[in-house]
């Protein structure tokens, strides 16, 4: 993964605030150039902290929220409003506080929704989300997934990203953009996730994480580990891949990535 850029911040709070500022800048620039923009949100502690910082930032008003498409990289297949759903957390952190167009907020289905809770429900939810993506793709995207402007991802200490876990069926998926995930090693067991081929349709992929528990996975991914054992190693954007880390998450990288001592 030679073309990835790495930015290391002194701490988790500063990283979240800086990522929020970076996101405002990127979305404003894209809207100025194209009229509208798209962002794919991640769940997890760092991803939600970024949204909270964005809510608190006066600069958030620079974004035209009505001209933004919001997607998710993965979802925990739980009832609507469940506090563990990535959508619930993103709404509380940001989306309920800014004038987004509800029709452009593309949440993945809930387990008490139209597809029900049975064994096939998560598969149906994944297929439905693939249809949503296909419906939003334009000819210039050259495929059934939009070329997302910014796609943010967290990661697990064992190397999962979105809900693509090491050596799981999702990491081998080459055809479908969205899959159901069963028996996730991290609760809840049933999830819906973009696949690596869909993630790689994004113009920019931002990998955001903090804490020492992520340091091995970060170092291995940047050293070129294989994506089957370490799915996050397969996450990259078509134009840019950015790793946004705090010092702890970056602590096992070589000196080249370390910030100067202060
Ligand atoms: O379950 C999930 O976890 C990962 C990482 O979360 P973190 O709290 O350890 O940073 C997240 O990227 C993913 O979206 C989420 O569903």
UniProtKB/TrEMBL annotation:
Pathway it works in: Carbohydrate degradation; pentose phosphate pathway; D-ribulose 5-phosphate from D-glucose 6-phosphate (oxidative stage): step 2/3
Listed InterPro entries: 6-phosphogluconolactonase_DevB, 6PGL, Glc/Gal-6P_isomerase, NagB/RpiA_transferase-like
Pfam families noted in UniProt: Glucosamine_iso
EC number: 3.1.1.31
GO molecular function: 6-phosphogluconolactonase activity
Residue intervals passing through the bilayer: none
Recorded catalytic activity of this chain's protein: 6-phospho-D-glucono-1,5-lactone + H2O = 6-phospho-D-gluconate + H(+)
GO biological process: carbohydrate metabolic process; pentose-phosphate shunt
Glucosamine/galactosamine-6-phosphate isomerase domain: residues covered: 12-243
Keywords linked to the UniProt accession: Hydrolase
N-terminal signal peptide: none
Superkingdom of origin: Bacteria
Annotated family: Belongs to the glucosamine/galactosamine-6-phosphate isomerase family. 6-phosphogluconolactonase subfamily.
Chain's role: Hydrolysis of 6-phosphogluconolactone to 6-phosphogluconate.
Protein known as: 6-phosphogluconolactonase
Phylogenetic lineage: Bacteria, Bacillati, Actinomycetota, Actinomycetes, Pseudonocardiales
């Amino acid at each position: 993964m030679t073309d990835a850029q790495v930015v290391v911040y002194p701490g988790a709070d500063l990283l979240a605030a800086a990522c929020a500022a970076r996101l405002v800048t990127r979305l404003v620039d894209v809207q100025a150039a194209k009229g509208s923009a798209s962002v794919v949100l991640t769940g997890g502690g760092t991803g939600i902290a970024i949204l909270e910082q964005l809510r608190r930032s006066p600069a958030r008003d620079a974004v035209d929220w009505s001209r933004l498409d919001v997607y998710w990289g993965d979802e925990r297949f739980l009832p609507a409003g469940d506090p563990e759903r990535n959508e619930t957390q993103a709404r509380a952190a940001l989306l309920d506080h800014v004038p987004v167009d509800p029709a452009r907020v593309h949440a993945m289905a809930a387990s008490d929704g139209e597809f029900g809770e049975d064994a096939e429900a998560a598969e149906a939810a994944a297929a439905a989300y693939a249809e949503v993506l296909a419906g939003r793709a334009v000819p210039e995207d050259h495929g059934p997934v939009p070329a997302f402007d910014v796609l943010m991802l967290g990661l697990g200490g064992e190397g999962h990203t979105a809900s693509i876990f090491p050596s799981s069926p999702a990491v081998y998926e080459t055809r479908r953009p969205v899959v159901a995930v069963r028996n996730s090693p991290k609760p809840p067991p049933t999830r819906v996730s973009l696949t690596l081929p869909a993630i790689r349709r994004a113009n920019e992929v931002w990998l955001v994480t903090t804490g020492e528990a992520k340091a091995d996975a970060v170092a291995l991914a940047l050293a070129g580990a294989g994506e089957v054992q370490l799915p996050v190693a397969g996450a990259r954007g078509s134009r840019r891949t950015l790793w946004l880390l705090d010092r702890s998450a970056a602590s096992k990288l070589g000196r080249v990535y370390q910030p100067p001592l202060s």
